[in-house]
Design brief:
Helix content: 25-40%
Structural class: alpha/beta
Number of strands: 10
Largest sheet: 8 strands, parallel
Strand content: 5-15%
Shape: globular
Bound molecules: fe (iii) ion, zinc ion
Strand order of the largest sheet: 1-10-7-6-5-4-3-2
Distance between the termini: 13 Å
C-alpha cells in the first residue's frame, strides 16, 4: 500500500489531523508542530499525541513528517536567529518524542552571503546541538530549489552538511519534486538519472520521504512555486513514475500542492486509481 498524504493545517490538534488525513484517503501526512511563521511553541498534549499514535497504528499509517517553521534559519548572519533555530528545533524534537519513528523535516537555510561553507558549518553545528543520541526522531534535510542563497539546491550541498555534522550518520533527506526540478534536476524527463545522481552524492538509503509537487516553472528556474499535480512542468505521469518507482515506493509521499484538504483528497484519489493496474 502506497503511503500518500498531504500537508495539513495544524490548527486542530494531532488526533484531529489524523482524522483529517483519513477523511481525504491519506495514510500519512505532514504538519507543522507550531505556528509556521511564529517562534512560539504550543504546549505538548501527551494524551492528544497518544490518540494519534493509536489512530495511525489502527489504520496502517506510514511515517508522518513534521515540518520545521519557515522562519527557522540556522545559517543566518545573526547569532540570535541561529540560536532561535536551535531552540525551535530542540523544542519540536521534544514534542516528537511522543511520536517515535516519524520524521522531522527542515529547510537547511539561507547563508545570506556568508558563503556555502560557512552556512553548511553553521547548519551542522546546530544539528549537533539538538540531534542528541537519545532523540528517537530522524531529522531530514529537504532538497531545495536554490532560490537566492538558499542551501540545498544541489545534492552536494546536503552532502556537505552530512559530512560536517557529527550526527550526520543519523540524518536523512526529504526529496521535493518541485524543488529538485527547479534546482536543475530533470526529474520529469530522467527520473532514473536523477536518482542515480542522488545515490552517488548522498546515498538512496538516506532518502526517507518525498514531497510530490508539480512546478510552475521549468527545470533549473530556482523559483519554488508549487503547482497542482498535472498542472505544471513536471506533469502527472512523471509524479506517478516517482510514487511507483521501485527505489521509492515504500516511502511516504506528501502533497504540498496549492489547494485545500478537499483538493488534496481529490489528488490522492486520482493518484491511487492511476496506481491500480
Ligand atoms: Fe518544505
Ligand atoms: Fe517541500
Ligand atoms: Zn517549496
Amino acid at each position: 500500500m502506497t503511503y500518500l498524504g498531504a500537508h495539513l493545517s495544524s490548527s486542530r490538534g494531532f488526533y484531529k489531523m489524523g482524522q483529517a488525513a483519513l477523511a481525504i484517503g491519506a495514510n500519512t501526512f505532514q504538519c507543522f508542530v507550531r505556528n509556521p511563521r511564529g517562534a512560539k511553541a504550543k504546549a505538548i498534549d501527551p494524551a492528544d499525541l497518544a490518540r494519534l499514535r493509536e489512530l495511525m497504528a489502527e489504520h496502517g499509517f506510514g511515517p508522518i513528517v513534521a515540518h520545521a517553521p519557515y522562519i527557522m534559519n540556522p545559517c543566518s548572519r545573526d547569532e540570535g536567529i541561529r540560536d532561535l533555530a536551535a531552540r525551535m528545533m530542540s523544542e519540536d524534537l521534544a514534542l516528537m518524542e511522543h511520536l517515535p519513528g516519524n520524521y522531522y523535516n527542515f529547510h537547511p537555510g539561507s547563508h545570506v552571503g556568508q558563503g556555502l561553507e560557512t552556512g553548511c558549518r553553521q547548519i551542522a553545528d546546530m544539528l549537533d546541538r539538538v540531534v542528541t543520541p537519545e532523540r528517537r526522531t530522524m531529522v531530514l534535510l529537504e532538497t531545495m530549489a536554490g532560490k537566492g542563497s538558499e542551501i540545498g539546491g544541489r545534492f552536494e550541498e546536503l552532502r556537505m552538511i552530512l559530512d560536517l555534522a557529527s550526527c550526520g550518520d543519523r540524518l536523512g533527506v526529504c526529496l521535493d519534486t518541485c524543488h529538485v526540478s527547479d534546482g536543475g534536476y530533470d526529474i520529469a524527463g530522467d527520473l532514473d538519472g536523477v536518482l542515480t545522481e542522488f545515490d552517488r552524492v548522498i546515498g538512496l538509503n538516506r532518502l526517507k520521504a518525498v514531497h510530490i509537487n508539480d512546478s510552475m516553472n521549468p527545470v533549473g528556474s530556482h523559483k519554488d512555486r508549487h503547482a497542482l499535480i498535472g498542472q505544471g512542468t513536471i506533469g502527472g505521469e512523471a509524479i506517478l513514475r516517482v510514487i511507483s518507482h521501485p527505489a521509492l515506493r515504500e516511502l511516504p509521499f506528501i502533497l504540498e500542492t496549492p489547494t485545500d484538504d478537499a483538493g488534496h483528497g481529490e489528488e490522492i484519489r486520482r493518484l491511487r486509481s492511476a496506481l491500480r493496474p
